[in-house]
């Protein structure tokens, strides 16, 4: 069998190591996973209750249009139902955008260290990825504008950026959007939107009316704690949503995901509490990194990227042996690890393990 030539050498996405795998490999009983930016406090109790109640209906297909959830989300965001599309995580929306709009030879612009799914989906469709270097871990919007050509189809902005955690302020984003040609789509990935407390940060939804070429992505996987159910969404003009819908599979979100997301959306008090706890966790970790004389990027999501001053893979392995899973292997930041902000207890355990790992690697702390 002959596959598409452009996919033969594609790397396979590597998620954070599963807890069960680490326990089995290393013979550990207690493992803390701080690798995939999951909510350490889980989902809202009301979401769990709704999911349990829905178990009696597993024999039924889901509503392919997610009508009830769409209506509730539209009301929450202040948009119309035809501005919204749901997917199996926001990852699927990225794939659907690529499927709907890229032709072989189209160009797409993104940062050189950002969410890898943008590039992989462009590669699958035969588009050419133009990767623009970050500056101090942040999108260089002027340099991205300079790379626009007549072949540019889509620009991707991850805000906060994954993995660095930095943000593009609203003023800079608006200036950028004003300069992008109307025929070029800008996808603003706000997967960590609900965690951000910085007042300079933008709300992409409020920009949609002024920029019909803008698409905003968000998810229920992060602060809402529904990562296992895989449900995210895109918000854009009805024209764009209609085109993406043409390439969407008919039942791409499950009944459990829809009812869980609906209940989670209604419990904004839980969201606010998770944001408060996350902000406290950032303060806790940053204080410890300063004590250990470790540089880090400003954190605006629920993760921090920190320089461990030695090859990150060695520190990763040393942490793993102590039952702490983080992320390493950032191609342009070989001495950095990315750690999810956990509970206060998890953060404390991580710092204790990190100190030992650094000493094992010969880092003076």
Automatic annotation (TrEMBL):
CDD domains: AAT_like
Keywords: Amino-acid biosynthesis, Aminotransferase, Histidine biosynthesis, Pyridoxal phosphate, Transferase
SUPFAM superfamilies: PLP-dependent transferases
Catalysed reactions, semicolon-separated: L-histidinol phosphate + 2-oxoglutarate = 3-(imidazol-4-yl)-2-oxopropyl phosphate + L-glutamate
Pathway connected to this protein: Amino-acid biosynthesis; L-histidine biosynthesis; L-histidine from 5-phospho-alpha-D-ribose 1-diphosphate: step 7/9
KW Lipoprotein (keyword) present: no
Stretches assigned to the Aminotransferase class I/classII large domain: 30-354
Enzyme nomenclature, EC number: 2.6.1.9
Pfam family, one: Aminotran_1_2
Cofactor(s) needed by this chain: pyridoxal 5'-phosphate
Positions of modified residues (N6-(pyridoxal phosphate)lysine): 222
Family: Belongs to the class-II pyridoxal-phosphate-dependent aminotransferase family. Histidinol-phosphate aminotransferase subfamily.
Subunit and interaction comment: Homodimer.
NCBIfam families: hisC (TIGR01141)
Name this protein carries in UniProt: Histidinol-phosphate aminotransferase
Source organism per UniProt: Paenibacillus helianthi
Gene name in the database record: hisC
